[in-house]
């Protein structure tokens, strides 16, 4: 018997209940799922190449991961989203630091970000109530349709997804951030609609959304300032200069007056608003709950992937398990109380023509404690065209967000493979 088969065998014997399961595991929705469906523990054994060699709490060199204090940005950028205001000197430095982290890491943590500690705490409580206090059949009222190209609702260890092997050791809940769409899910789960859950998700989504726009303002502002040449626009004085990407789309709509990209490099938030629409309508909140796992070295909570959206903001609890791939090596990200993890998504990589890079990351399980992470994914509208803002030497062919999302959910995302479909290969290399 090969090593993999042997380990699969170990898991299969665990599944038949020979005493290895922890009480926490036995009690969970996961155990209920495995007992009631065709899913089997051996389907959670990942290939040797993909299994985590770095454990959930094995932190090394994680102090190199940039941590950015957004304090100096918060007051100015609140106004900047309406009308660009001058940043303080310190603010300019922080913006440059953030842009550098986006370029060099595609990943950083932010503190003093402006999302209130109260709402994060309330959201953690509500998410834990959902995952831990509801009965499996209650959560299954909003089980994801495995074939859907726009996955929303609840998934548990592969149930509710099209996956058949290398199953993720996770329960997850995807909700639309738009209030009325999100509420429909709460009404399906709870007969009384659970007012507190709806209040907290709305507030969490609104606050995380606002911070994500501030970060976009900084990242896009820095990019536009650098790339004045190929990405200019109609100036405030009415002078029309060459414009690409988003601007072109607006111009086609005969909406010239609103093309307000600032040639001084500001206006990144205004440009982002064009892509993400009013109130960031297409954005998503996602809750990830990783139950304790009897064999964490054989499986993954989430396999290596890059997030497809523009930007992800993630709150993780203090257990640990998030890992990023930097220069081909996996690094565990030490949880920082109060911090939010920010990572660049594929859409921003394309929009910035590889100036910012989406980062591969994964979630590793542990055998002792459940872990909760809560994310906000800043998402373009379905019909938004994603293409490099820079007109000269684009690295990608244009595509709509809907097209990208659908091709991504039709296949299993492995690393950053989705981006390659749209990459323009330089024939001279
Ligand atoms: O739970 C984590 O740390 C990672 C979550 C994640 O990568 C995601 O939701 O896309
Ligand atoms: Fe992710």
From TrEMBL:
Spell out the molecular function terms from Gene Ontology. metal ion binding; oxidoreductase activity
Q: What Pfam family is a match, any one?
A: DIOX_N
Keyword field: Iron, Metal-binding, Oxidoreductase
InterPro entries listed in its UniProt record = DIOX_N, IPNS-like_FE2OG_OXY, IPNS-like_sf, Iron_ascorbate_oxido_reductase, Oxoglu/Fe-dep_dioxygenase_dom
Stretches assigned to the Fe2OG dioxygenase domain: 280-380
Q: Which family does it belong to?
A: Belongs to the iron/ascorbate-dependent oxidoreductase family.
* Name listed for the protein in its UniProt record: Fe2OG dioxygenase domain-containing protein
- State the organism's lineage: Eukaryota, Viridiplantae, Streptophyta, Embryophyta, Tracheophyta
